[in-house]
C-alpha cells in the first residue's frame, strides 16, 4: 500500500509572546528564551525559541496528519535555532508502510520542520498508526484506544 504525502502544516510567525507562554507551560524560564539583553550578552542576535516548542509543533503536525493517538514513536534532531518572527512549516518527507500487525497498520515517516527560507530547523522520524487515513476510521480509532490502554497497563 502507498500513502500519499501529507500536506505541509504552517506555524507562525512565532512571537515573543509564544515563547513566554511556552516557558510558562513547560517551566523552562531560561533567560535565553525571553530576555533580549541576556541573549545578546551570550552572543545571540535575539532570544531563541525552546527546542521542545519546535518539537511540539512537528508532533502536532503528526496528529493533524494521522489523528489523535496515532503516534507510536517520535524522535527528533535539532539543527539550528528558531527565532521570533520565523514561519515554520512541517513536512512529511517519506512514508514507508509496514505490515499490518495486531495494533493496526503502521508506517514509518521521515519528517522535517523548516524555516521559510528552506533551512531545516528540526528533523525526525515517527511511527504512526495509519488506519484512520486509509478508509477504516472507526476501526482504527478503536484499535488506537485498545493499544493505548494496553500500553498504559504495561506501564503500571
Which labels suit this protein?
5-stranded antiparallel beta sheet; elongated; 156 residues; 4 helices; 33% helix; alpha+beta
Separation, N- and C-terminal Cα atoms: 36 Å
Strand order of the largest sheet: 1-3-4-5-2
**Secondary-structure element order, as H and E?**
EHHHEEEEH
Q: Which spans of ≥5 residues are poorly predicted at pLDDT below 50?
A: 134-144
| Beta-strand content estimate | 25-35%
For the biggest sheet, the summary is:
5 strands, antiparallel
* Gyration radius over CA: 18 Å
Number of helices, counting only DSSP H or I runs of 4 residues or more: 4
Q: Which structural class should the secondary elements be placed in?
A: alpha+beta
What would you call the shape?
A: elongated
Calculate the mean pLDDT score and round it.
85
The helix content is 25-40%
Q: How many beta-strand segments? A: 5
Write structural notes for this entry.
Helices cover 33% and strands 26% of the residues. The chain has helices at residues 16-26, 36-41, 51-66, 137-155; strands at 9-11, 71-78, 88-97, 106-115, 120-129. It has a 5-stranded antiparallel sheet, with helices on one face. A hairpin with a 4-residue loop joins strand 4 (106-115) and strand 5. The N and C termini lie far apart (36 Å).
Q: How would the blueprint of this fold be written?
A:
Blueprint (H helix, E strand, L loop, with lengths): L8 E3 L4 H11 L9 H6 L9 H16 L4 E8 L9 E10 L8 E10 L4 E10 L7 H19 L1
Antiparallel strand pairs: 1-3, 2-5, 3-4, 4-5
